[in-house]
Task: inverse folding
């Protein structure tokens, strides 16, 4: 089997051979004036006590999301609550529960969903889910069930039932608002982050949840609970899943996936980070590696499983459930010996590239790439001008693709330089324009640029590099 070692002979000579082969007491846990200005605070103070949201000082925005859009203000969150929450009553006189109370931690169970719904199944599941959330947070005694099994039940309900997702999130917002028990508070924040690894809120509830999370970003640690860190992780996961949608595949979320979603809160995943962050993650295990372990490992797996002799490699997707399982294993630094289909590591490799927090070819070099797509010398010079880690990883990728572009392989895989560029360009370059015409036109140039590199980039500089 061929290997993607930088000292492997076919890869060393790939460039010359491939030359011919032509993607909330605090409400909403202080989810209020941190998202608004003084005028908004004055307006809020005029509200009746039964309607107002508790006040607190506004935290500053974190640098890491300075470029992100400003979250919805409190008025939008308040509006959602007034328009969508069920009217709850209690006591012999059946007195209405205020919004303030409805959105604050409670040790009691609920008798109906927090959000209004006509769906009978959602009404039933909402009450059961609230008990599960209380059990996970340690607010409700249950039989000796492992906490991750409880989390799995909650996550599976949300993954399967789109109508229950917002209910789960608002229940978690409630139980992490004014929570008197630090351990319970922490588990609730943890569960929010875990859920956001599997399913998004609805478009209607997105701004509410985003605003809630943002009010925690600059909070100080409370009784040992690193609130801001949980918020940071949840913010990033929310941004990501609102774009990608719920976990794909036919199989339900597994216990391993749920455990990994919890572990990665404080032990970041190799997916969805920058190249520098990925290198930092592997520093202890592979201090001498100049390339990401995940990159070289998945690439080698593709070749070891005969990907260079498999028709449609990189074009045909691997089984999504197998890809999901491999992702969990790889994130734990494990390479299962049960892999048989090269399409699986091939799909995960593309996913890793596509999910990089910053594209393989940084945005500031994008224009230079699309302008030099048909000029080999200029195209290659762009590569040489990239930051070191980006240059190494891009060169490694091109060296990898050059193996497949060799005629002896492309005649079997049906993936010549053109086809390889077509499937890989979206994973390397990201057009930042919102103009459909520019996006359409640049798609062709992006493909041509990657093809030009496959055909002309001398990758011998990677000899002996790992």
Result:
């Amino acid at each position: 089997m061929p290997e993607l070692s930088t000292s492997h002979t076919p890869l060393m000579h790939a460039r010359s051979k491939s030359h011919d082969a032509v993607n909330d007491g605090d409400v909403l846990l202080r989810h209020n004036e941190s998202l608004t200005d003084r005028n908004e605070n004055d307006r809020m103070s005029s509200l009746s006590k039964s309607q107002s949201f508790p006040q607190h000082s506004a935290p500053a925005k974190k640098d890491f999301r300075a470029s992100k859009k400003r979250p919805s203000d409190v008025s939008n969150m308040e509006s959602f609550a007034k328009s969508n929450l069920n009217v709850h009553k209690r006591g012999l006189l059946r007195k209405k529960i205020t919004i303030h109370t409805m959105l604050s931690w409670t040790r009691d169970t609920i008798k109906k969903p927090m959000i209004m719904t006509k769906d009978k199944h959602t009404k039933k599941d909402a009450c059961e889910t609230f008990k599960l959330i209380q059990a996970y947070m340690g607010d409700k005694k249950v039989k000796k069930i492992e906490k991750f099994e409880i989390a799995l039940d909650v996550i599976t309900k949300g993954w399967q039932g789109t109508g229950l997702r917002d209910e789960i999130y608002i229940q978690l917002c409630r139980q992490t608002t004014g929570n008197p028990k630090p351990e319970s508070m922490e588990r609730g924040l943890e569960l929010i982050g875990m859920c956001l690894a599997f399913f998004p809120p609805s478009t209607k509830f997105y701004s509410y949840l985003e605003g809630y999370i943002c009010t925690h970003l600059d909070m100080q640690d409370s009784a040992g609970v690193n609130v801001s860190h949980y918020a940071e992780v949840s913010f990033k996961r929310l941004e990501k899943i609102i774009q990608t949608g719920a976990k794909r595949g036919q199989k339900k979320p597994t216990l391993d996936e749920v455990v990994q979603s919890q572990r990665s809160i404080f032990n970041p995943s190799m997916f969805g980070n920058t190249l520098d962050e990925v290198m930092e993650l592997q520093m202890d295990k592979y201090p001498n590696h100049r390339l990401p372990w995940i990159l070289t490992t998945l690439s080698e797996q593709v070749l070891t499983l005969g990907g260079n002799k498999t028709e449609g490699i990189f074009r045909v997707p691997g089984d999504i459930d197998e890809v999901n399982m491999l992702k969990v294993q790889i994130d734990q630094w494990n390479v299962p010996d049960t892999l048989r289909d090269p399409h699986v590591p091939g799909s995960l490799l593309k996913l890793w590239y596509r999910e990089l927090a910053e594209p393989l070819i940084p945005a500031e070099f994008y224009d230079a790439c699309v302008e030099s797509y048909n000029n080999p010398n200029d195209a290659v010079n762009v590569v040489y001008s990239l930051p070191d880690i980006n240059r190494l990883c891009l060169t490694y990728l091109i060296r990898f693709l050059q193996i497949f572009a060799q005629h002896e392989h492309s005649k079997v895989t049906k993936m010549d330089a053109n086809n390889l560029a077509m499937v890989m360009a979206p994973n390397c370059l990201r057009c930042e324009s919102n103009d459909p015409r520019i996006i359409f036109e640049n798609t062709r140039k992006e493909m041509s640029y990657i093809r030009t590199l496959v055909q002309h980039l001398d990758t011998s500089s990677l000899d002996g590099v790992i």
Residues 33-266 form a domain with the Serine Threonine Protein Phosphatase 5, Tetratricopeptide repeat fold (CATH 1.25.40.530). Strands lie at 89-90, 95-96. The chain has 22 helices and two strands.
